[in-house]
Amino acid sequence: MDQPSDAPADKYAQFTGTRPVAPQHAFDEGRLADYLHAHMPALAAGAIQVAQFKGGQSNPTFMITAADGQRYVMRRKPPGVLLQSAHAVDREFRVISALHGTAVPVARPHVLCEDPAVIGTAFYVMDCVDGRVLWDPTLPGMTPAERTAIYDELNRVIAALHRVDPSAVGLDGYGKVGGYLERQVKRWTSQYRAAETETIPAMESLIAWLPQYLPAENPTRIVHGDYRLDNVMFHPTEPRILAVLDWELSTLGDPLVDFAYHCMTWHMTNGPTTRGLAGQDLAALGIPAEPAYLQTYLQRSGQAGRQIDADTWGYYLVFNMFRLAGILQGILGRALQGNASNAAALESGRRAKPLAEQAWALAQTLYR
User: Fold this and answer.
1) Whole-angstrom Cα distance, residue 56 to residue 47?
2) Is 255 helix (H, G, I), strand (E, B) or coil?
3) 106-127: per-residue pLDDT in tens?
């Protein structure tokens, strides 16, 4: 899917590796070691080694290797002037702490530091999870049965997340209850405006259109905000998710909006700059078609027999494309300022405009 990628754990080690810490993200590693030894009992005594993952366009992510060889992952806010409410590593830490031990697989959290005096920005540390991150949604090299199992597991885990009662895991107040989509439209309009580098007519049309067709709301649940194939860690050999990654955009909200974001994969092409399933022979691949995938999710999330009308589902998709275009615009803004954590950030950011145009084209087919 055409979207940014910032997941923690061992996501980048297998695919892009680590590198020395980039100069713009450098910090006092001795001060970090002192803090971790004082606040993280699991960390072995002795020196630590720090390397930076090559991936990541939002929160710089680092591998920490302890003296005994145990590996951990640190996520920190980037330095510089940031958009309000962006790069919320404190929220990532809170939600994985709440979900650890539930049916939703997450990396074990260790410590959150919000004191900028330690390394300059807030950060948290969690276990490094070893496994597979699968980038191409067509899953090349797999058999149809293997692909079916992978997608079934993706479906199972997001349904499990949306069945969690936020109050039962201590996430009261993690987000507001009610008015989710209305607030989200306003928020991403504001985020887009704050990072705007040119006038995109399709974004202007969406900003006017989205508030006019807000659908009825579903019961509030925990929403991931960025659930997709390459934001989960699969077992090295089994079709089993070991950890859901990258919780930066999580909150309380409408679970069907969250699921529709996940389903944008079915609406994106697979090519040099995008990853998706549009135009693929899904039956031959062993990948479920979107309507069947949606019905399986509804059954698993306690909504068996429910039907979502085409306009409402289309609205969810349009909104998520708009939201993603806003995220990509933020990446472009940081890239132009020289403050993005990924060398490909400029290319990623330039995808905002065509994605907005795709969203507006879809919007014009709805509510007729």
Assistant:
1) 26
2) helix
3) 999 999 999 999 999 999 999 9
